[in-house]
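Handoff note, outgoing to incoming analyst
You'll be picking up this chain. Sequence as last confirmed:
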Amino acid sequence: MPANPIKNIYNTLLKEYDFVAHSWWPTTAFKEEEKQFEIIIGVILTQNTNWNNVVKSIRNLKRENLINIDGIKSIDKDRLEEIIRPSGFFKQKAAYLKNICDFFFENQMAQIIEMDTAKARALLLDVVGVGKESADSILLYALGHPVFVIDAYTKRIAQRMNLLDYCNTDKYDYDTLQKCFEENLKKDVDLFRKYHGLIVEHAKKHCRKKPLCDGCVLREKCSAKTKKLK
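Most recent structure output, in case you need it:
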Protein backbone atom coordinates (compact mmCIF):
# COMPACT_ATOMS: atom_id res chain seq x y z
CA MET A 1 0.00 0.00 0.00
CA PRO A 2 1.46 3.42 -0.94
CA ALA A 3 2.53 5.80 1.81
CA ASN A 4 -0.17 8.17 3.00
CA PRO A 5 0.97 11.66 1.87
CA ILE A 6 -1.66 13.37 4.02
CA LYS A 7 -0.17 11.82 7.15
CA ASN A 8 3.35 12.44 5.88
CA ILE A 9 2.67 16.15 5.38
CA TYR A 10 1.29 16.38 8.92
CA ASN A 11 4.36 14.69 10.41
CA THR A 12 6.72 16.88 8.38
CA LEU A 13 4.97 20.11 9.36
CA LEU A 14 4.75 18.99 12.99
CA LYS A 15 8.53 18.70 13.17
CA GLU A 16 8.96 22.13 11.58
CA TYR A 17 6.31 23.97 13.62
CA ASP A 18 6.24 22.08 16.91
CA PHE A 19 5.16 25.26 18.71
CA VAL A 20 1.66 25.13 17.19
CA ALA A 21 -0.78 24.28 19.98
CA HIS A 22 -3.63 21.78 19.72
CA SER A 23 -6.13 24.54 20.48
CA TRP A 24 -4.40 26.89 17.97
CA TRP A 25 -7.29 29.29 17.29
CA PRO A 26 -6.13 32.54 18.95
CA THR A 27 -8.27 33.82 21.83
CA THR A 28 -7.64 35.97 24.88
CA ALA A 29 -10.52 34.67 27.01
CA PHE A 30 -9.88 32.45 30.04
CA LYS A 31 -13.28 30.93 30.82
CA GLU A 32 -14.29 28.13 28.45
CA GLU A 33 -17.69 29.57 27.55
CA GLU A 34 -16.19 32.99 26.84
CA LYS A 35 -13.45 31.36 24.77
CA GLN A 36 -16.02 29.43 22.73
CA PHE A 37 -18.03 32.54 21.96
CA GLU A 38 -14.95 34.60 21.13
CA ILE A 39 -13.99 31.91 18.60
CA ILE A 40 -17.47 32.03 17.06
CA ILE A 41 -17.25 35.81 16.74
CA GLY A 42 -13.78 35.49 15.23
CA VAL A 43 -15.02 32.99 12.66
CA ILE A 44 -17.60 35.48 11.40
CA LEU A 45 -15.28 38.48 11.47
CA THR A 46 -12.40 36.75 9.68
CA GLN A 47 -14.43 36.24 6.51
CA ASN A 48 -12.66 38.03 3.63
CA THR A 49 -10.09 39.78 5.80
CA ASN A 50 -6.84 39.11 7.65
CA TRP A 51 -6.61 38.23 11.31
CA ASN A 52 -4.99 41.52 12.37
CA ASN A 53 -8.19 43.33 11.41
CA VAL A 54 -10.24 40.80 13.37
CA VAL A 55 -8.14 41.41 16.47
CA LYS A 56 -8.96 45.12 16.29
CA SER A 57 -12.69 44.41 16.09
CA ILE A 58 -12.59 41.89 18.93
CA ARG A 59 -10.68 44.41 21.04
CA ASN A 60 -13.44 46.94 20.35
CA LEU A 61 -16.13 44.41 21.26
CA LYS A 62 -14.37 43.60 24.53
CA ARG A 63 -14.10 47.28 25.37
CA GLU A 64 -17.89 47.49 25.02
CA ASN A 65 -18.40 44.22 26.95
CA LEU A 66 -19.95 42.56 23.89
CA ILE A 67 -18.27 39.15 23.82
CA ASN A 68 -21.57 37.57 24.78
CA ILE A 69 -24.84 36.63 23.12
CA ASP A 70 -27.09 39.04 25.01
CA GLY A 71 -24.83 42.00 24.32
CA ILE A 72 -24.70 41.51 20.57
CA LYS A 73 -28.42 40.69 20.37
CA SER A 74 -29.40 43.87 22.21
CA ILE A 75 -26.98 46.41 20.73
CA ASP A 76 -28.19 48.66 17.93
CA LYS A 77 -27.01 47.31 14.58
CA ASP A 78 -25.61 50.67 13.46
CA ARG A 79 -23.51 50.85 16.61
CA LEU A 80 -22.31 47.27 16.14
CA GLU A 81 -21.25 48.13 12.60
CA GLU A 82 -19.02 50.93 13.88
CA ILE A 83 -17.46 48.69 16.53
CA ILE A 84 -16.48 45.98 14.04
CA ARG A 85 -15.58 48.35 11.20
CA PRO A 86 -11.85 47.34 11.26
CA SER A 87 -12.68 43.83 10.02
CA GLY A 88 -14.30 45.12 6.82
CA PHE A 89 -17.71 44.35 5.30
CA PHE A 90 -18.99 45.64 8.64
CA LYS A 91 -22.65 46.03 7.65
CA GLN A 92 -22.82 42.47 6.41
CA LYS A 93 -20.86 41.06 9.34
CA ALA A 94 -22.94 42.93 11.92
CA ALA A 95 -26.02 41.21 10.49
CA TYR A 96 -24.21 37.86 10.51
CA LEU A 97 -23.15 38.31 14.14
CA LYS A 98 -26.73 38.99 15.13
CA ASN A 99 -27.84 35.91 13.16
CA ILE A 100 -25.37 33.60 14.89
CA CYS A 101 -26.32 35.07 18.27
CA ASP A 102 -29.99 34.42 17.54
CA PHE A 103 -29.04 30.84 16.68
CA PHE A 104 -27.18 30.23 19.94
CA PHE A 105 -29.90 32.01 21.91
CA GLU A 106 -32.43 29.52 20.52
CA ASN A 107 -30.04 26.54 20.63
CA GLN A 108 -27.99 26.10 23.79
CA MET A 109 -24.29 25.71 23.07
CA ALA A 110 -24.14 22.63 25.28
CA GLN A 111 -26.84 20.99 23.17
CA ILE A 112 -24.95 21.66 19.93
CA ILE A 113 -21.79 20.24 21.50
CA GLU A 114 -23.58 16.99 22.36
CA MET A 115 -25.51 16.82 19.09
CA ASP A 116 -24.62 14.53 16.19
CA THR A 117 -22.02 16.36 14.10
CA ALA A 118 -23.90 16.12 10.81
CA LYS A 119 -27.08 17.48 12.41
CA ALA A 120 -25.22 20.31 14.15
CA ARG A 121 -23.50 21.23 10.88
CA ALA A 122 -26.80 21.28 9.00
CA LEU A 123 -28.32 23.62 11.59
CA LEU A 124 -25.36 25.99 11.41
CA LEU A 125 -25.46 26.04 7.61
CA ASP A 126 -29.05 27.27 7.81
CA VAL A 127 -27.83 30.46 9.52
CA VAL A 128 -27.44 33.32 7.04
CA GLY A 129 -23.76 34.26 6.95
CA VAL A 130 -22.44 30.81 7.88
CA GLY A 131 -20.94 28.87 4.98
CA LYS A 132 -19.14 25.54 5.05
CA GLU A 133 -15.77 26.86 6.20
CA SER A 134 -17.37 29.00 8.91
CA ALA A 135 -19.63 26.19 10.12
CA ASP A 136 -16.75 23.74 10.29
CA SER A 137 -14.50 26.24 12.07
CA ILE A 138 -17.19 26.79 14.70
CA LEU A 139 -17.76 23.05 15.06
CA LEU A 140 -14.08 22.17 15.35
CA TYR A 141 -12.60 25.04 17.35
CA ALA A 142 -15.51 26.26 19.47
CA LEU A 143 -17.65 23.16 19.92
CA GLY A 144 -15.20 20.26 19.69
CA HIS A 145 -16.67 18.33 16.76
CA PRO A 146 -14.22 16.34 14.58
CA VAL A 147 -14.58 18.05 11.20
CA PHE A 148 -11.64 19.05 9.03
CA VAL A 149 -11.68 22.72 8.03
CA ILE A 150 -10.88 23.47 4.40
CA ASP A 151 -9.68 26.99 3.72
CA ALA A 152 -7.71 28.71 0.96
CA TYR A 153 -4.41 27.64 2.53
CA THR A 154 -5.47 23.98 2.63
CA LYS A 155 -6.63 24.07 -0.99
CA ARG A 156 -3.37 25.65 -2.10
CA ILE A 157 -1.15 23.14 -0.32
CA ALA A 158 -3.32 20.20 -1.40
CA GLN A 159 -3.11 21.28 -5.03
CA ARG A 160 0.62 21.90 -4.99
CA MET A 161 1.28 18.59 -3.25
CA ASN A 162 -1.05 16.73 -5.66
CA LEU A 163 -2.95 15.21 -2.75
CA LEU A 164 -6.04 14.40 -4.73
CA ASP A 165 -4.07 12.02 -6.93
CA TYR A 166 -3.80 9.91 -3.79
CA CYS A 167 -7.56 10.19 -3.25
CA ASN A 168 -8.31 9.24 -6.87
CA THR A 169 -10.10 12.45 -7.79
CA ASP A 170 -9.34 15.62 -9.70
CA LYS A 171 -11.82 17.86 -7.88
CA TYR A 172 -10.60 20.55 -5.52
CA ASP A 173 -14.00 21.60 -4.20
CA TYR A 174 -14.66 21.91 -0.47
CA ASP A 175 -16.50 18.63 0.09
CA THR A 176 -14.06 16.52 -1.92
CA LEU A 177 -11.02 17.93 -0.14
CA GLN A 178 -12.64 17.54 3.26
CA LYS A 179 -13.50 13.91 2.52
CA CYS A 180 -9.95 13.30 1.32
CA PHE A 181 -8.46 14.54 4.59
CA GLU A 182 -11.02 12.96 6.90
CA GLU A 183 -10.79 9.52 5.28
CA ASN A 184 -7.01 9.47 5.59
CA LEU A 185 -6.67 10.68 9.17
CA LYS A 186 -7.85 9.49 12.55
CA LYS A 187 -11.12 11.30 13.32
CA ASP A 188 -9.79 13.30 16.23
CA VAL A 189 -10.52 16.89 17.29
CA ASP A 190 -7.01 17.66 18.55
CA LEU A 191 -5.43 16.22 15.41
CA PHE A 192 -7.72 18.18 13.09
CA ARG A 193 -7.15 21.41 15.03
CA LYS A 194 -3.40 21.01 15.05
CA TYR A 195 -3.16 19.96 11.40
CA HIS A 196 -5.15 22.98 10.28
CA GLY A 197 -2.97 25.22 12.45
CA LEU A 198 0.17 23.72 10.90
CA ILE A 199 -1.20 24.33 7.41
CA VAL A 200 -1.90 27.98 8.24
CA GLU A 201 1.59 28.48 9.67
CA HIS A 202 3.25 26.90 6.64
CA ALA A 203 1.11 28.77 4.13
CA LYS A 204 1.93 32.10 5.74
CA LYS A 205 5.65 31.36 5.86
CA HIS A 206 6.24 29.52 2.58
CA CYS A 207 3.18 28.40 0.62
CA ARG A 208 1.95 31.85 -0.33
CA LYS A 209 0.21 32.74 -3.58
CA LYS A 210 3.71 33.46 -4.83
CA PRO A 211 5.56 30.64 -3.06
CA LEU A 212 8.76 31.12 -1.08
CA CYS A 213 10.36 27.75 -1.76
CA ASP A 214 13.72 28.34 -0.09
CA GLY A 215 13.70 26.48 3.22
CA CYS A 216 10.30 24.85 2.58
CA VAL A 217 10.16 21.39 4.17
CA LEU A 218 7.63 20.21 1.57
CA ARG A 219 9.61 21.45 -1.41
CA GLU A 220 10.86 18.11 -2.72
CA LYS A 221 7.36 16.86 -3.51
CA CYS A 222 5.75 20.19 -4.34
CA SER A 223 4.77 21.18 -7.87
CA ALA A 224 5.21 24.90 -7.13
CA LYS A 225 8.97 24.61 -7.56
CA THR A 226 8.59 23.55 -11.19
CA LYS A 227 5.58 25.50 -12.43
CA LYS A 228 3.73 28.68 -11.66
CA LEU A 229 0.50 28.10 -9.75
CA LYS A 230 -2.24 30.44 -8.64
